[in-house]
Amino acid sequence: RLSSGWVPRAPDVNSFVARTNTCGELRAAHVGQEVTLCGWIQYQRQGLFLVLRDFQGLTQIIIPQDEAHSHVRKLLSNAPVESVVRVTGIVSSRPPGQENLKMPTGDIEVKAETAEVLNFCKKLPFEIKDFIKKSEALRMQYRYLDLRSSQLQYNLRLRSQVVMRMREYLCNHHGFVDVETPTLFKRTPGGAKEFLVPSREVGKFYSLPQSPQQFKQLLMIGGLDRYFQVARCYRDEGSRPDRQPEFTQIDIEMSFVDQAGIQRLIEGLLQYSWPAERGPITTPFPSMTYEEALADYGTDKPDTRFGMKIVDISDILRRLDVGFVQNVLSYPRGTAKAICIPQGVRYLKNKDLESLKEAAKSQFNQEIMDVICRPDGSLKSLLTKFLGEKQQSEFIRALNMQVDDVVLLAAGDHKRVCSALGSLRLECADLLEAAGMVLRDPAALHFLWVVDFPLFLPKEENPSELESAHHPFTAPHPLDTDLLYSDPTKVRSQHYDLVLNGNEIGGGSIRIHNAEQQRFVLEKVLKEDSEVLSHLLEALEFGAPPHGGIALGLDRLISLIVGSPSIRDVIAFPKSFKGRDLMGNAPDYVTPEELEPYHIHVSWPAAETEAKKN
Amino acid sequence: RLSSGWVPRAPDVNSFVARTNTCGELRAAHVGQEVTLCGWIQYQRQGLFLVLRDFQGLTQIIIPQDEAHSHVRKLLSNAPVESVVRVTGIVSSRPPGQENLKMPTGDIEVKAETAEVLNFCKKLPFEIKDFIKKSEALRMQYRYLDLRSSQLQYNLRLRSQVVMRMREYLCNHHGFVDVETPTLFKRTPGGAKEFLVPSREVGKFYSLPQSPQQFKQLLMIGGLDRYFQVARCYRDEGSRPDRQPEFTQIDIEMSFVDQAGIQRLIEGLLQYSWPAERGPITTPFPSMTYEEALADYGTDKPDTRFGMKIVDISDILRRLDVGFVQNVLSYPRGTAKAICIPQGVRYLKNKDLESLKEAAKSQFNQEIMDVICRPDGSLKSLLTKFLGEKQQSEFIRALNMQVDDVVLLAAGDHKRVCSALGSLRLECADLLEAAGMVLRDPAALHFLWVVDFPLFLPKEENPSELESAHHPFTAPHPLDTDLLYSDPTKVRSQHYDLVLNGNEIGGGSIRIHNAEQQRFVLEKVLKEDSEVLSHLLEALEFGAPPHGGIALGLDRLISLIVGSPSIRDVIAFPKSFKGRDLMGNAPDYVTPEELEPYHIHVSWPAAETEAKKN
Does the interface ipTM go beyond 0.90? Predict the structure, then answer.
């Protein structure tokens, strides 16, 4: 049935339009040809020549000076920068010595014969070449001008190509079915971050889902076998840096699959779609348990591009005669851990160290002690006087300390100590790099699977109750199924996260396919009202196959590929961190008449009602 | 840069999972192999054999009867229909004479060696094979069961493949960039059908756009050159048959293109992506002006698979001495037209004729007169006595009447007469076919471009004011630009519709790229407040290239390809015609607390407030 056809080496970008070539295409081999180019005036000099730009590049156009072409000269000399023109002319070699080696079209120029100004550009509110330095708000307001930059053109085109390659891999190579699922649905339990959409039925609302989770499971129950979707998802988190109210995920679900199957699929997918200029990728990706990640890196998304791993020094300190330390270590999850900052004495200022300690205190309520390795190899620290010579060398050996290294040490609850040190580890890395140390290779690609997450976590506001670590459909680890009924806090899950260079770029799980087990998790463990999920519970009773899946965060993935710090640089029309579209001014006020069909009205605070009246 | 790789002939649907083969794959060539299949029990007979089903087909499994396999026999005999099982066994030839020629796997059977019931199926609320005959509401409620039907599996898989082929054509062959545009935006002028999404800013709402129209134009202004998107669109029309609140369009925009360029692109796109079993398609598609379509077919989306065209008989009737006719024809757009229903006397009942006339009266306020051709070739009609012999034969010749044909005749305003006859033409075709006449070839594909639409139409509620026939960004026909400023009612547009077998499957236009012209249309012709579009007007001033595009309605297109009467059959989780999801029960009530962050509350009608209290 499938007869995927011939795929050309390079797409024909000149089909169906007036131009014969793009502005990035012409080379010495084209000399003598008559060509028609369409583009924007990038630069024009004294009526002699101009540089024409389109999405593919720049071409130098020679403005004719003879009387017969005075009309062309006038047109091209008078059109302002960023005006749109069509030029027809003959490709010529540049005079010897005037070739521009930096320009792919630098061997040639086009001698204009005829020209038309397709649209004039009004004076711009700023110089376009300095645009990038302008405030982000201004770039957002004039997003269509920002989109003309080579960086954004590259980002959006690369995004399109990567997604296309992913589709080829999934559809054409592995038989996945691209299924569109609804975005107008209803609240999921705990879906506090879901946007609401008023319906015409009084008091009833749709909700914009955070992911197609329920639908993709129902597709498996419906026998679709292999589903994927480049899915638009919605999350209303108010203002948060580098989050978007709508975002895109590569959403995948398979029947009759296990964790390893999904992992191999994703490794193959990324290997196939990874841009050649950022590759190659080595597979399989390494794997680490959640407990290892927490113990060694203090986070579930370790940046493994550099060391500075967390070291457990409990055994060394346990022997110290320090009441505080003994006390801490006597608790069930009490621990003492440390990280070693190479050359910290030289690269970190005193105030850096102070602010690191303050951060640990304010963010994690964790005291930090520093230990410095003096030039003579001795340790300087409040702790030193309690350490015997043997313990000092054990300490130095355990942390592999060198002269001028700084160790940050923390004692207390395992989770808190690890999280604090994990956070300090990343902050120190940034500080070291800012001070000139070469720590992380910018070209390095450290993919990592993090597995064996806990299935449930104590609720922050009430630790005696449990909540899902990810979502209530996650299956327990096959070895821990019995624990589900005896000690759910100890159950590991079949959830897996994919991490790239310390960023979570995807996550998924094998799902519960047994109705009884799902009901037990919802009702007995999570104490949730399962009524809102009755359709899914019922579906599980009618022959649900074992299934599992994953979702990759496309925006973050592409921003990592192009090396952009913000996902806003890989989205054509992003919202500001306050969720506003600064170009079109959304969201916006609507009239009471427009609200009427939806049977809602706005609860204006008294002050604003007053202001509106005036 | 683009290095689109090797595309396999057929996808590997068994990668990454436990099975070795699908249930549709095994043939005589596999005999002797050990295979593992996963699927649903379609049918089981007396513990002797069962039929296993997955998305690709059916395979017969022989249940072992010997003592050594008693466990397997017990498992497979006791699992209810629609349970999910995994079976491992040896492929064997069926005994001679027991081959099933109707089944692709009918030459073989699998002798089960081991088996596992992966999930039991509870008793179904109905017999699954009769499911299709159940009410649509029941099918919607248990959509995941409906999805297991071979028809829905086919529809969704074909949809995925067609879209994939379209992407290959656009991305890989013609360099289009797949750009995702926001769905949280703001109201467009006249966007009364846009869903609202409350934001956390008091009184401010996002809106879910009906199409990415503004964004795709802004992308062209941003130099993207060639954009496409399989775009989710939203339209809140309340209850309408065969419309969905969310739907999908293939959205395309190009710079430096003209109408013919877009038309050739779409013809190539459809030709490339059309499924082989429904092809081939002949290009270029024929083209017809809006005026021709209205005059000949009474509609802007003519079904050209059959004749019965509207014939102008004004000249014949003008010479009659009938006051009423003379009066009608004396009006500026007065006309008399008719359609000839072949064999109408034999295929249409008297009550059919009566209800056709009533429909014309009630829907179009148009009187219809019938004329019958008697077996002796004479005409029977109220009109006959006014027609001389010469006029009778002129009449017969003009309409190409045969014995037993029925002519429906209407006189009055051109638009009204044509619309009424166009509607009757379609109703008659349905009646003739229902009565057994072969009129339209179900395999026929009549693509048609309809062009030269009027740019503006008189508003229905106030004919002295104008509104856009399509949308305010449509460019005027190049020959009519001057008329825009003198007599806008006469201006033709550069809008084009694509029609397939009488269904509009796409529409687009060349857009206005000149800021002044756009401002004139918005402010002077349409008298709209251009403030809400200030960002677009401003963008047009900063070097907007000439551009145009089109959108294809994907749901309708796929439903025509698979021959389904409703778009609900090509959507995985459609809403009911009242906009409800009957499976998950959306939309639904939310708590006042959930509304609080959005500063809205529900205006309950008094009665419902009362009911809620009790």
Answer: yes
